[in-house]
Design brief:
The chain has 14 helices and 7 strands. The protein has helices at about 5-10, 15-20, 65-70, 90-100, 115-120, 150-165, 190-200, 200-215, 220-235, 240-245, 255-270, 270-285, 290-305, 310-320, and strands at about 50, 55-60, 75-80, 105-110, 130-135, 140-145, 170-175. The protein is elongated and about 70 Å long.
């Protein structure tokens, strides 16, 4: 197997500057373990101690900048966990155990690759179930879910060697002295969209979210924001009482607009399950309108996220399709 830590690999590692610019200031969660010894087993010298709030953290866009900066002082192992790769959960559990046992020789950052595909893409990875070492901000492929514990330990040993060669000599020490996490801010286009929504300028907010998606098509927050503001625009100024009390018939071929407006009013007023079923009832009988109805349902799924009502609607939609 090729050595993943060859200097050529390090020199050609992925440039994460674009993703760095999107990252927000936030530190790791609360501590779960105690002081860390140095690699030789002795107490960490004060000059080599790197205060952190935990040795195992959940990572995302909001704290990626801190991880990249931290990797200048101590190796950071980024675990891209996923439900789509057999063995990924076992790898995550193994790395968590090894991170605590290593007592600060490396930091483990867990990324949910299923929910944050934009980070996976930034690391130029096709799928999760792998772990990557960050050394001075540069990622190096390291571990996959099919490796046994002995091989994982061997590769970690190589991480320590390369880190020492590059002058990365710090030991992470869990400490209350680690900077507390400030309240996260929004990326500029997201903030601009929110400001425009507050002013009632829904078209302007839509333009900001569309621009954000042109810049990063995998920006799931922008996708959700765009669906939400489109919904706000559609229901802006309607008489909710009148629309909610209307009875557009699924069998009436001229009632598409009324059906969609009532569904929008239901979702916007907290009656998401009822709104989705209105669309599904029409989907079941108006075959020529299925694409428009399916598109509206997908917007609702994006807005509502992973809730039981969405799961039920997805299941019913699948049944109607097949």
């Amino acid at each position: 197997m090729d050595n993943p830590f060859a200097r050529a690999s390090l020199a050609g590692a992925v440039d994460l500057s674009a993703l760095k610019a999107k990252a927000e200031k936030r530190d790791a969660p609360a501590a779960t373990t105690g002081p860390a010894p140095t690699p030789d087993g002795q107490g960490a010298s004060e000059t080599n101690q790197v205060p952190v709030r935990s040795l195992v953290i959940d990572a995302g866009i909001e704290n990626l900048r801190e991880l990249l900066a931290l990797s200048n002082d101590v190796p950071v192992l980024v675990d891209f966990k996923t439900t789509s790769v057999p063995g990924s959960a076992a790898l995550t559990a193994l790395l968590e155990r090894l991170a605590l046992a290593a007592n600060g020789k490396f930091i483990l950052a867990r990324v949910d690759a299923d929910k944050q595909p934009e980070i996976l893409e930034a690391f130029q990875l096709r799928q999760g179930g792998v772990a990557v070492a960050l050394l001075k901000g540069q990622p190096v492929p390291l571990i996959s879910a099919d490796l046994d514990e002995a091989e994982v330990l061997a590769r970690l040993g190589r991480v320590y060697e390369v880190a020492a060669q590059q002058g990365i000599l710090g030991i992470a020490v869990v400490s209350d002295a680690a900077p507390a996490a400030p309240a996260p801010s929004l990326p500029p286009r997201h903030q601009a969209a929110f400001d425009l929504i507050d002013k009632g300028d829904y078209d302007g907010a839509i333009a900001e979210y569309e621009a954000a998606l042109r810049e990063m098509p995998t920006d799931t927050l922008a996708t959700a924001g765009l669906a939400q503001v489109r919904l706000l625009k559609r229901v802006d100024g309607i008489d909710f009482a009148e629309v909610l009390s209307s009875e557009p018939s699924p069998e009436n071929p001229d009632a598409l607009a009324a059906t969609l407006l009532k569904a929008d009013a239901c979702v916007a007023s907290g009656h998401a399950e009822f709104g989705m079923n209105i669309v599904l009832d029409r989907f079941a009988v108006q075959f020529a309108e299925r694409e428009a109805l399916r598109t509206r349902l997908l917007e609702y799924f994006t807005i509502l996220g992973d809730i039981p009502e969405v799961g039920a609607a997805r299941k019913r939609l699948t049944g109607l399709l097949y």
